[in-house]
Predict the structure.
Amino acid sequence: MAEDLLEIFWMPGCSSCLRMKEFVQRLGIAHQAIDVVAAPEEAARLTELGLRVPAAVRGGVGVPGVDLVGVARLAGLDYDPPKALDPAELHRRYAEITAVTAGLIARLGPEALEYKSPDRDRTMRYLALHASTIMRGFVDAEETNVFTDGYQFISTQLAERATAGQILDVLAETRAVFEQWWDHAGFDDPFDRILTSEWGTWTLHEALERAVWHTTQHTRQLEYFVLDELRLGTSPRLSEELLAGLPLPQGIHA
């Protein structure tokens, strides 16, 4: 393998991985895609660079795969990302998108909660919990200045035994915490404060955009599995208007 070939490290079911893969393919960048689940020994190379999936590496230099500008720069290209939706619109979208999330979760009976997507060893229960807690990781950064994906709000007990009703309670709490933050500080925040994360630094605006699109992508997955695969109804579905302007991958899952 040529030393200057771009390597992209990904894992099935990872929304940011899919977004990075589509980005590299769309720009026509020569690359090698490495699935760290199929080749776990390759993950050690990322650890040595202080990275985790998704990530891009070239010539011993790596960048987080969530940083598409950095990925393009690593490949020797310039990339200007689309302008993010303003915070007020992201706030509005989150409320409407998670209303759809809630409607999909409500359709998950005991058997459906145990269903696993073919691309990842993850139940619909865990997928629904993840979609329900992503925004908590954003709000938590108000005090910690560290932006996360909210996994710390999913207990082992919930991950193993939560009912649809309990997951809906988790989502309702997340929405309430976000609304409380918005009413207290978010509505007039300049959104330029810098947060740290395991993927590098983010402005508050960038972190809010990620929390919204990440929640949306997992809601898209729930929609696909609940309505199209398990055939547990025909609605609710996300509208094109709700998806427009969010930096989503085109695909549903890798």
